[in-house]
Fold these 3 entries.
Entry 1:
Amino acid sequence: KHVDWSYEREWRVHVPLLKTSRAPWYYYEEEAQELFEAVYLGCRASDGFSREVLAARNAHLPKMDIYRAITVGPTMQLRFEKIS
């Protein structure tokens, strides 16, 4: 995360599944839907990854919004566009 955004208090969690021998290297746990209001994808998230996130959302949390960051010109400013 760029230092310009250090004022934001957010959590980024990455837990590798070391015993998984094939893709995808993640799993789905059942969680209460109200815990997940939205997911924000970074501006460098690939189209393939975005499609995977959308598919997971559609299957497990269909009411959750997903936004993708888009850079604004040569600055570090971002705007978020809702994707579906």
Entry 2:
Amino acid sequence: MIRPDKLKLKYLKTAGIMLTKQGYRLFPFSRLLIIFTYKQTYNQNIMKQAGFIFSFVLLLLFTHTAHAQKNDAYFVGKWNIVIKGLPKGDTEALVKFELKDGKLAGSITDKEEKKDMPFTAITLNDSTVVVKFDHSSGEVEMNLLKKDSDNLTGQINSQFDLTGIRQKED
């Protein structure tokens, strides 16, 4: 038996309640009204929870997208890099990154040979970008790691260390 003292006060006012010596007694139509109202309230709570969870997931997706775009923008520009420990000695190069059609693209130019080599593949992971380009010695893989706002570090073919400084625009 549904006890009216367990229900909310607003439901008691609308339900047909009769007080007897044994306690409360509800008329049959009132029981149906209370059960229907209880189910409706329960379903509303579920919908509120589902709406909250959906909003939270949507917020996470937008935050993740904004974070990825911010990392793209960090690498855009010109970087003067020094590759250390090469067989022919330390080498300077100019790395250029730009956004083309919303994707990161670029090239590397050896300052001695003045040869421009476009990147064949670019992979961006958090604060690291991995680029590949064709050199006369074969395909070269270069890892660049964000150090601070104007400096980066990295390696070429996981053997030779490099450091880079952002070139200031004139």
Entry 3:
Amino acid sequence: QKIALFIAGQYTEDDAIKELKDRGLSDETVQKILPLLQRGVEIAKILNWKEEIWAKEAELENQVDSMTLEELLQLDVKKLCEDTYSQIPLEV
């Protein structure tokens, strides 16, 4: 939950540090935990990015499935894919 809040900008590293210290953890322990939390955020971003790709692929599939034979024969597949995937940020 905290990672999702962090990604949404509703939870900061300072919030995490304060929360961990409020639980009685030492500065040393907090400093060991922070990289793990940062890694968790990066993994969550990658998973969200993957979900975006799958959603775009589903859109493509639905779009192609709904086309008539005439439309399919005139379809520029390369352009359709480029247009669809250009909407997904490459940076995670």
